[in-house]
Write a structure and sequence with these properties.
Blueprint (H helix, E strand, L loop, with lengths): L1 E5 L2 H13 L4 E5 L12 E7 L5 H10 L4 E5 L2 H10 L3 E3 L10 H13 L15 H10 L3 E6 L5 H14 L5 E4 H4 L12 E7 L4 H10 L8 E4 L5 H22 L8 H9 L1
Length: 270
């Protein structure tokens, strides 16, 4: 069976993490109201919206609501619809901003998958130590360009990028490492950017070549080893490290991280 995750922002990252972390499970992750027709047959849809009111997610849901699905939400339109129609809903606690509810949502989604396919117990993730968190905070003092050493762990890099956006109210950029060496290496700039590598011990040959090629421009690369004996654990560790570092840096610099006025303003125009 194929599982199709549909979600946006802090909810949508759940599908990305499970797709990369559970390679033996057929997973698609969509961040749009557009659903390819090839997915309509043979799929179980998992609709994730922390608020239950995400416009794009609701639009997508309306297209597949006659197909097999499960909703993960804390309330809103999606919760009301599921209750009214007696359809499958996995309720999660209220009171969080969506990005802070990631661990709750990913565990809920993992439990849903385990009802259909055999999965081990949800793994315990090692807690980043104080030194690593402080090292990441230093790396985030400039606009970060974040690379995952392989595509497998890219969700950790993308999550860090979005956490910088929302928690620190600043730009950040993310990509997979090997792509860097085909174009972005020509745009190396140390005055404005900080280079961060989230490493799962893959592509060391390419990383070392990049370091040698840029050594006259880049004096320091902030490299973080993702800890875990599976890709899933490594991604979750990287997310935990980035989340804690951005939250602490927001507190240190007195940024009001919870409020997202520009997102609210944008949605008001839709």
């Amino acid at each position: 069976m194929r599982f199709v995750f549909i979600g946006m922002g802090g909810s949508g990252i759940v599908g990305d993490v499970l797709k990369q972390g559970l390679k033996d499970v057929d997973i698609e992750s969509l961040h749009s109201s557009n659903i390819p027709k090839r997915l309509f047959k043979g799929s179980h849809f998992i609709i994730i919206s922390y608020s239950g009111n995400t416009m794009e997610t609701i639009q997508a849901f309306k297209k597949i609501k006659r197909l097999p699905y499960t909703i993960i939400t804390s309330g809103g339109y999606l919760m009301d619809y599921a209750i009214d129609t007696r359809n499958r809903v996995e309720p999660i606690p209220k009171g969080y901003v969506p990005r802070d509810a990631f661990s709750i949502m990913v565990k809920a989604a993992y439990n849903i998958l385990s009802e259909f396919v055999p999965l081990p117990e949800f793994p315990k993730i090692e807690k980043p130590n104080k030194t690593e968190i402080e090292k990441m905070m230093v790396a985030l003092e400039k606009t970060p360009i974040i690379y995952s050493s392989s595509e497998d762990v890219y969700p950790a890099a993308y999550r860090l990028k979005t956490q910088v956006n929302e928690n620190l109210k600043r730009h950040a950029f993310s990509n997979k490492f090997t792509e860097l060496c085909h174009n972005e290496i020509e745009a190396t700039d140390v005055k404005h950017y900080s280079y961060i590598i989230l490493s799962d011990d893959k592509n060391n040959k390419y990383i070392n070549a990049w370091k040698r090629a840029t050594r006259n421009k880049i004096k320091q690369v902030h490299e973080f080893k993702l800890i875990g004996d599976t890709i899933f654990k490594k991604i979750l560790y990287g997310i935990r490290l980035g989340d804690e570092a951005t939250i602490r840096l927001a507190e240190k610099t007195k940024i009001e991280r919870i409020k997202t006025p520009m997102i609210k303003r944008y949605k008001g125009y839709l």
